[in-house]
Design goal:
The protein is α+β, with helices and mostly antiparallel strands. It has nine helices and 16 strands. Pfam families: Neur_chan_LBD, Neur_chan_memb.
């Protein structure tokens, strides 16, 4: 019984407590309803909330950047998700909380209030004002605090000079569209970036935040400045607050998918001059590299905006490489022309032989095997055969002569045994000369001459063919030397050009500065 009684008392207590809070809520709801009727009974939302016409309404304005949605480089549009923090005082919306059961804050639809017509000046899609009309918070002293969310597409001039290692300065200019500075004054109010509180002075506003990224861009800073501008159309001065979003591109995606392939393809150009001319694929490789670079250039042109103000650095590098490849095609045609030269069409000048065969190969650390000259000479062999046959014929004819006395010398007396050796040799030489002449005047000599002419013709043909082959080898060696010269030249130019462009990227942080924020004061 005791437990049942305790449970009954607890239920009764909870019921009474619920009824008490319900009555209090009903009283509060009635108080807010009465307050709303009293405030807006004679309220005109089209009139500025000032006591005197000469007074101005001071609007504390701030922006909370929730997300950087997209940066369209092609159309030069930046899409952001922001909260616009606007605060002003409306003297018509003041009340004494004691008269309304202590109600100090009233949330009312913004469509029932006077709102400053603050718009984004550099809007890019036609939506200048806030679409979502959220409720505003009205305090008992007349302070109105309105924080509508908005997605803006603002114009942003894209500087593609250092793409994809670039920084962009995209501005968002806010100001009243119809009220001049004498009617509405704008100042920096409390602003946050992704929950971080922003502190600023009267003319400058600096963001305190942590680095934030959307996968492609990093928002590094977002300073703001107040401007007082006098336009040519109107004598009045207009006030605007401009925020400058300093965003930096994350280059990893483009480095892997664009820059590294371009570098590798450009270095393939160097291999053209290392490829032997006999393989017949030099021109194919050159043209393939040129077509690949053309595809990459079209990809870049599809990404970056169509502007004639500046050429991106990577575009300059691709153009440099394309000129590089085009020059390699021209030089390859020249090398192939030299490679296929022959003695029938070209004679090698002496200066070419001296420079490209004797001097330059030593400077380029090139070695050439000595040209093997054939030791076979048909003419020499033919001469040896003839000489051998003559000697044999002489021997056959001289032997009978040694036993016969010529008729012209029959009356001569025999010389003494002491005749010197020289006379004997002279006599023998004369006999041999007579025999040689008789052999040459022999009737069989025309046949021998005909055979000799045939041998001479064959020998000359073989000698000319060997000379032509050696000359063709010389031309091919000259082409190889020229290829080696172009190989080292292109390696130096390619590495130097790549390092030159990379050096400009290294100096990017020092060369590229943020756009100067011009502050115009009264």
């Amino acid at each position: 019984m005791t437990g049942r009684k305790a449970r009954s008392l607890a239920c009764t207590y909870l019921l009474l407590l619920h009824l008490w809070y319900g009555l209090q809520g009903a009283n509060a709801s009635k108080a807010e309803e009465k307050l709303f009727r009293d405030l807006f009974r004679n309220y005109n939302k089209w009139i500025r909330p000032v006591a005197n016409v000469s007074d101005n309404v001071t609007v504390a304005f701030g922006v909370s950047i929730s997300q950087l949605i997209d940066v369209d480089e092609k159309n030069q549009i930046m899409t952001t998700n922001v909260w616009l923090r606007q605060e002003w005082n409306d003297h018509k919306l003041q009340w004494n909380p004691e008269d309304y059961d202590g109600v100090t804050v009233l949330r009312v639809p913004s469509t029932d209030l006077w709102l400053p017509d603050i718009v984004l000046y550099n809007n890019a899609d036609g939506q200048f004002q806030v679409k979502q009309q959220t409720k505003a918070e009205v305090q008992f002293d007349g302070t109105v605090f309105w924080v509508p969310p908005a997605i803006y597409k603002s114009a942003c001039a894209i500087d593609v000079r250092y793409f994809p290692f670039d920084k962009q300065n995209c501005s968002m200019k806010f100001g009243s569209w119809t009220y001049d500075g004498a009617q509405i004054d704008m100042k920096f109010g409390p602003s946050t970036y992704d929950g971080a509180q922003l502190n600023g002075s009267e003319q400058e506003h600096q963001m305190e935040r942590e680095e934030w990224s959307n996968g492609e861009w990093v928002l590094e800073d977002a300073p703001g400045a107040k401007h007082v501008v006098k336009y040519e159309c109107c004598p009045e001065k207009y006030i605007d607050i401009t925020y400058y979003l300093i965003i930096r591109r994350l280059p990893l995606f483009y480095t892997i998918n664009l820059i590294i392939p371009c570098l590798l393809i450009s270095f393939l150009t160097v291999l053209v001059f290392y490829l032997p001319s006999d393989c017949g694929e030099k021109m194919t490789l050159c043209i393939s590299v040129l077509l690949s670079l053309t595809v990459f250039l079209l990809v870049i042109n599809d990404i970056i905006p169509s502007t004639s103000l500046v050429v991106p650095l990577i575009g300059e590098y691709l153009l440099f490489t394309m000129v590089f490849v085009t020059l390699s095609i021209t030089l390859t045609v020249f090398v192939l022309n030299i490679h296929h030269r022959s003695p029938n069409t070209h004679n090698m000048p002496a200066w070419v032989r001296k420079i490209f065969i004797q001097i330059l190969p030593k400077l380029l650390w090139m070695e050439r095997h000595e040209v093997q000259v054939s030791a076979f000479d048909p003419l020499e062999i033919f001469r040896e055969i003839i000489e051998q046959e003559i000697r044999e014929q002489e021997v056959r004819e001289v032997r009978p002569c040694l036993h016969k006395v010529p008729p012209g010398i029959a009356g001569l007396k025999p010389r003494p045994k002491s005749m010197d050796l020289e006379a004997a040799l002279a006599q023998r030489k004369g006999i041999l000369a007579i025999s040689r002449q008789r052999y040459l005047d022999d009737p069989i000599l025309p046949e021998v001459k005909e055979a000799a002419d045939g041998v001479i013709y064959i020998a000359k043909h073989l000698r000319d063919r060997e000379r032509n082959q050696n000359m063709e080898k010389d031309w091919k060696y000259v082409a190889m030397v020229i290829d080696r010269i172009f190989l080292w030249t292109f390696i130096i130019v390619c590495v130097g050009g790549t390092c030159g462009f990379a050096g400009q990227l290294v100096e990017l942080d020092r060369k590229q500065t943020n756009k100067q924020i011009i502050q115009i004061t009264y």
